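Hey, can you fold this one?
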Amino acid sequence: MDLSDMLRALPPSRSADSDSESPSDDESDSAVGESNEDLSLALVNQLEGEVEVENSSLEENQTQDSAVIHAREYQLEMFEESLKRNIIVAMETGTGKTQVAVLRIQAELERSSPDKIIWFLAPTVALCEQHSRVLRSQIQAVQIKFLSGSDGVDTWTDVRTWDDYLRNVRIVVSTYQVLLDAISHAFVGLDRLSLIVFDEAHNCVGNHPGSKIMARYHSRKAAGLPVPSILGLTASPVMKSKIEALEIIEQTLDCVCKSPTIHREELLSIVKRPTIHYVFYSQDDYLDRTATMESLATVFHNMNIYDDPYIIRLLEENTERSKVALLKALEKRDTYVFQQMKSLWRKSSEIQRELGSWAADYFISATVNQFLRSVKKNDQWFREWQIQEKQYLAKALGAIKISPPPPFDDGATIIGISDKVNALVQELSRSVDDTIGIIFVREIATVAILAHMLPLHPSMKRFRIGTMTGTSDHTGRKRDLNILNKTSGLQDLEDFQNGTLNLLIATSVLEEGIDVPACNMVVCFDLPDNLKAFIQRRGRARMRDSKLILMMNAPTTQVDKWAALEAEMKKRYEDDLRQIQELAELEESEKGGTEMLYVPETGAHIDFDQAKSHLEHFCRRLTVHQYIESRPYYVFKRKHTSHLDLPQITATVVLPMSLPVELRRIKGSSIWYSEKNASKDAAFQAYKAIYKAGLLNNNLLPLKDEFLSGVETRAGEVEVHERWSPWGQIAQAWGRQAEFYQRRLKLIDHCGDTMCEFDASLPIPFPKLPVFEVFWDESKIWTIESGEMKAISTENLYVDQSPALVDLAYRHRNFEVRDTAQVLHFRSPTQDIPFQQLVGQNCVEEAGLSDTAIIRDSNGYPFFFKSWLPTLDPTLPVKDMLREQPVDIPWLMLEKWSRRKNFLHPVEKQRLSPTPKKPTQILYPAHLCRRDGTHASNACFGALIPSIMHVVEVHLVATELCDTLLKDVGYSDISLVTTAINSPGTGEGTNYERIEFLGDTILKTFTTATVTASYPHYPEGYLDAIKTSIVSNSRLCRSAVETGLDKFILKKGFKGNKWRPLYVEDLIKADADTDSKRQMSTKTLADVVEALIGAAYLDGGLPKALTCIRIFVPEVEWRSLDASRDILFSQAPMRTDLPAALAPLEELIGYSFRNKSLLVEAATHASFGVVNSTGSCMERLEFLGDAILDNIVVSVLWACDRELDQREMHLFRTASVNADLLGFLGMEWTISQEATEILKNKNKSTIETQTKIPFWKFMRHVSPEMGKAQRNAEERHALEREPIIDALRHGRGYPWVQLAHLHIPKFFSDFFESVLGAVWVDSGSMDTCAQIVEKIGILPLLRRMLAENVDVLHPKNHLGILAGKGLKTVEYRNEVRVAEDGSRELFCKILVADEVIVELGGGVSPEEIQTKAAWEAYKILKSRESEKNVEDEVMIG
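Sure. Predicted structure:
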């Protein structure tokens, strides 16, 4: 019984306990989990085939790629053991030993000096290539070199060459022999190495190169000299079927062999042992030779050895040495050509016996034809052969009479197929439909022939077959004649890994080390040679319900012997296995803790048994970032009081790196005899510590939930106060004040000449008015300027002329005007304008007419005088009613009076219309007209009074707001406030949108800095939740209502047609206590708050903005940016040095940190906590850097030469800071580092080159999935970067589609934002941060987009706007389609008004395929629109 069988035989209670050690606690009172997966994530999972059913498919998914292995608890257990001492990690094939090595190497890089090297050893070139790929995918910032014989390493004969090659290198991957040679010749000293990793460590016995390396290690250690750390990796710690082999390997590697014991249940849940099936076949050792084989034998025996080029050369040399060689060659018929012919004959006989006569004939035919073609073409396949040898052998092979093998059809069994092959075919044909299998064979030739035969068999059509024979370096060696495989099979291996192939035929090269997908069928076509081969082949069949098929021609007990020996060896290094049953029973009987965490304020309580599930829930809620293992895991420590007693166990729970250092590792308070209770104890102590740290609320739930629950749901509209009107108070003040306030208003024409002046008076301080334009008509645009305010006494306040002025302008509209005081007094300083006495006062006489006259027709309508016509030209048009008037009398050319009352907005230009525009001038008989007795400008000013009063009213409202609610801000420019309180719907010509955009950025900057500084222990998820609760529209809306801001917001614009004079006496009589209400958008209320913050910033910088923020969000203890920065700087532990791998990053960004720990934190992904549990991760700095980046970009947008509206600023900001762009620029931003290459010339010259290290590679992580995502993004970037660069530098449109197709993961952009946040904390300077944003390329791109007005509108917005013109809806439908070969493809279908416009496939993500499809749909609809416009023009024409 092996280990897994022994564990399966235990009572169910032990299995349940194993669950308690994993984060998926199966307890009834566990916290309810939450699923945050959205449609996009589900589609991506579908696309990548990651939607798994049951845990059985977990390992299948993990082993699809060498880099997709989660750092599970048992791996972390092995990693932590490796930090304490040298160990050999003994775990089953496919359980992730390589990931343990990656973690250990990351830790060694952290703690070793930059001149030390880590050397990773593997037995084969293929394994070395695989390991170097894995290491490069996860360790990006240091130079990693793969060193093999093909580099010419055997010719490096001096220290200089090695030193040059290893310059700036931190990790080397090679075969064992390469390092042994380097050490033996003193090119590389063991003192230069800090860690050696021995993969397939069981090989290191006897005269193996690994054993010899360790002999030098032991010599140094015995002498008291420093030696490197050792880490061994193996699936089976034995080479031979002897139990003593374990001790020998441990002694050789100076290690202790360790297998997971604490988390063995999780390990065994990953390991799926196959069932063993025996397939017997008959084998005939005496077969008749085929005609082709007979011909081969005849040719071989008839070959004249004296014609062999080797014999001829020896005869010609005629030396003592050549004579000895000649005698030996003739005696044994031993020349290279003869050996190749002999091998061809022997191989063909073996193949006939194993595979049948058909296969033997095919082998001979294929071998002969391959050689003859190569000789004829003179290609490189047999390049090491001498020409004479190739010609001699070609002549012999050409004489063989080859009979082509007959067709391979259903009746093929009669043509000479062996029973062994037939048995294989039958077994494969009976396999399940989704079979993924490997066939192991002994000989390379068998691989090639089976790979040719099986696809020809009719029942094998469902198999997609490839081969794998490993890599061999034939440099300097002659290639054997019978090698049919021209490739090593690496491409087939890759296709097998990604699912393109489902059956691989391989030699023993695939037994150990090389990562392949989990299979459900492994066939040993030839029996394994030893226990090691058996274990490793069996390890390939690790899917659920898998089979290991052993083909044999006679029963054997060898497999049972191997299984028994393996079980015995497992007991030797899993020394606690004998106690499993006792522990299982003990865990059932041992009572748990009785301690309880209780909150008196709420009555909430958590007991000992609930803590683990609650702790898991808490950790899950910490972050939403990808590639972070947020589950807690447990480290157990055992103490034996005597060899007879059960061990005493204590547990430490390890929590995510998002938490502060002091909460990362929490130890249990008691000693236990079961892991179950020990882990519960640790979880309980951790949850208690988390509560004391303030990360839980009084309901003992994560605070993040509380913060987010504080974000109120926001209705579309709410009832608020009616807008405050100043006129009632002013009316009351007219009768009380002894002093009044006056400003002189000037009406100025387009030439800058003053048309008229009037003194405007109020009984309260007159607000300062900006110069504003009034638009009489399309051509007449005047301005009104206000003078300085002066105080006047009652005696100097003259009669109000407002009624007279209004009467002049509006009498013709039947406007009732009373001659009584209005709330705003107007009076000319130079003219007397009596009420109702000047309208049509004079008759029309030519001598008294000028362009300053107002002419009235018979109905009293005003006109501007243009010219005097003594007689009327009959050709000129006149009104129908005047056609009867004589033409030989004087007529007047008049210009129509404006029909407007609201002159604050430009006159809309008439659109092209088939209806002719009405004339602005009119002809009228002079005798029917009257002339006003005052200057035309006075009447014009009277017409402007409603507009002027509105401007004054707005400024009075703004002034009242500034004098009351916003008094502490101290705005100096009231026009900023008037802009801030004007909602877009007012049509005032100005609104809050621009400064609201600015205020939003400033508010978020202050909030982010304040929150981060105020809560030093809060993870980013908490900080973001707090920020959201502060800056949410619902919170700001509430602020607007609670502070009374709502009554100052201008929602409705000025409606001139509804304007009527406001008389003092009327307003005094009106009820001032009415508290009327109005409906207002909640977004408007929130926007005005942000607009006022923006206005405060423009008026007085950050201090005034912060004062404004404090008024509206008083519950927060706000800090200035400098104060927050100082706190954050003081919170970071001081460090003056950088890890060697990060030194180039500081040079790249062009900023030298005062406190280096900030850069280390910024470059550390949360997954790195496995390696470094004492540092901090990048999340808090990324949270901060996001706001800093927004602030910098918005500042540039605000300072643009042309005034951008809110929509433009939003679009350009989005185009500048989106994650796709930041990720792309982070891949383009590089620093050069010296790299070396050794030439294969005589002098072994060193070529010094510059390798470019991109910014993104400096992020430290230990997530294999991140490594894979980085590698995939890097490959896409290399293929697609050129057109994106061209578009960013020269394009007229923004490359949304191309950037989306790169599918760069968000952590690329997160890294840049975290570094930016670190620079701000260290420098305290936005200008310094702006230099970083400049260096990466964001600001140069933004300036170009602004200067050239690049179209930055997203394709989805383009499509939505175009469809919206016709009031049509746009619908996106994504789906994953599965092809017959099992491949998945993401499609997007776009419907506009239920019509399918476009359908595209090939998406890499839901957002990318939608973007791409939207652009195609937009182009289609745009083309239709253009065609329709052409048709319309043709019809009109």
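Residues 312 and 339 are 17 Å apart (CA to CA). Let me know if you want another pass with a different chain boundary.
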